[in-house]
Design a protein that fits this description.
Number of domains: 2
Oligomer: single chain
Shape: globular
Order of helices and strands: HEHHEHEHEHEHEEEHHHHHEEHEEEH
CATH architecture of the largest domain: 3-Layer(aba) Sandwich
CATH topology of the largest domain: Aspartate Aminotransferase, domain 2
Helix content: 25-40%
Length: about 400
């Protein structure tokens, strides 16, 4: 009998359960004829959100220029548009040379960690986190050290605990703001305290700001790069969420702060970017139009806007349930819902998600998928319309009721 080919041992520390076993099981149920309401992924196009027409036209009108490879960092108009956005936000000293366009933020996270880490280096990553960060650290030979963002403090980082994790192998601090999965939006004081730690220990600040304009009520988004002066800051954003263009696969990474200290790091990124030649060229032509024109996201996140109303529908449904609790999400497109303490020892997040899928045909992401030490949360996206959300939470209550 031939020996089975094994996968790389590096993958043992890699988890991405958002598209993992539960999602595969949901697909099997759909093949058997069941209609599944899938709330595990923030994919606006699946819920009727369209990319702005002006962006589609910009891409179409420039198709003739999109056939050759472009510069490994991306086309100049796209990079210059990102520079202008940064300058308008108060981030000075950045040029197109410090901007990298990638196949989504996901690719740029991988490239920037690969250019930074040596085997055994450590990166501080929030808990809960977007699991790609922890996975990318592991894939590039590093170790993710998770700093607590406890539910009882509104998922705000525990700064004292964060400081205790820093040692001579620590290279970077990851900040996801607005946060996925919790929906927390960090205050200026919190962000400044993180920057102070990073500058004190010469750590790279990696600011995942893909949901930068998606904030609600009185929440204020503070760009991390406006606070960083004495160390290197990388800001990640893109077209996927704010501009509802996930399939375009266009993200950007901007180096700012102490750029003199970043020269070798930037060179490493250039080398890695060149090895993959360039990112998807046609969709890059939509960046300048996206960043320079009317920001349609504003109407969606205000009262009466669809994202605002769907978020409110989840808040109301949790308030009406005797089985659930929620720290109100102030940003992004998710709600991180907590099971009532009465289910402790009866039903953890994995068992709940499996039963909800198999018996009630709703797919959610268990909270432990986001590297939490507790197992009583689950994440849903706020993208469905309020009517669908109402149906979902009726099914959730029906699932939990026998265990109550």
């Amino acid at each position: 009998m031939e020996q089975e080919i094994q996968s790389s041992s590096v993958l043992k520390d890699v988890r991405y359960e958002i598209r993992g076993q539960l999602a595969h099981h949901a697909l099997e149920l759909e093949k058997r004829g069941y209609e599944i309401i899938s709330l595990n992924i923030g994919n606006p196009g699946l819920f009727g959100f369209r990319t702005p027409e002006t962006m589609r036209l910009a891409m179409i009108e420039n198709l003739a220029q999109a056939e050759p490879y472009c510069h490994q960092k991306g086309i100049f108009p796209a990079r210059e548009a990102v520079v202008m956005q940064q300058q308008n936000r108060g981030v000075l000293g950045v040029s197109a040379d410090e901007v990298f366009i990638g196949n989504g933020v996901s690719e740029l996270i991988d490239l920037s960690l690969r250019a930074l880490l040596n085997p055994g280096d450590e990166v501080l990553v929030p808990s809960p986190d977007y699991p790609l960060w922890s996975a990318a650290v592991a894939l590039n030979g590093g170790k993710a050290r998770h700093y607590a963002c406890p539910p009882e403090t509104g998922f705000t980082p525990d700064l004292e605990a964060m400081a205790k994790l820093i040692n001579k192998r620590t290279r970077a601090i990851v900040v996801i703001n607005p946060n996925n999965p919790s929906g927390a939006v960090y205050s200026r004081d919190t962000l400044q305290a993180i920057v102070d730690l990073a500058e004190q220990h010469n750590l790279v600040v990696m600011a995942d700001e893909i949901y930068d304009q998606m904030v609600y009520d009185d929440a204020e988004f503070i760009p991390m790069a406006t606070l960083v002066e004495d160390t290197v800051c990388l800001t990640y954003s893109g077209l996927s969420k704010i501009y509802r263009a996930c399939g375009y696969r266009v993200g950007w990474c901007v180096f700012s702060g102490d750029l003199e200290c970043a020269s070798e790091y930037i060179h490493g990124m250039e080398l890695l970017a060149a090895l993959r030649l360039c990112s998807n060229v046609p969709a890059q032509w939509a960046v300048q139009t996206a960043l320079g024109g009317f920001q349609s996201i504003g109407a969606l996140v205000k009262p009466g806007g669809r994202l605002y109303q769907s978020r409110q529908a989840i808040i109301d449904a949790v308030d009406a349930s005797e089985y659930l609790h929620l720290q109100k999400p102030m940003g992004a497109m998710y709600a991180f819902v907590q099971l009532d303490e009465r289910f402790a020892g009866k039903l953890d997040d994995q068992a709940f998600a499996l039963e909800l899928l198999e018996k009630h045909h709703v797919l959610v992401a268990p909270g432990t998928s986001f590297n939490t030490p507790y197992a009583d949360h689950f994440r849903v996206t706020t993208l469905p319309d309020p009517e669908t959300i109402s149906v979902v939470f009726e099914r959730i209550d029906a699932c939990l009721s026998p265990y109550a």
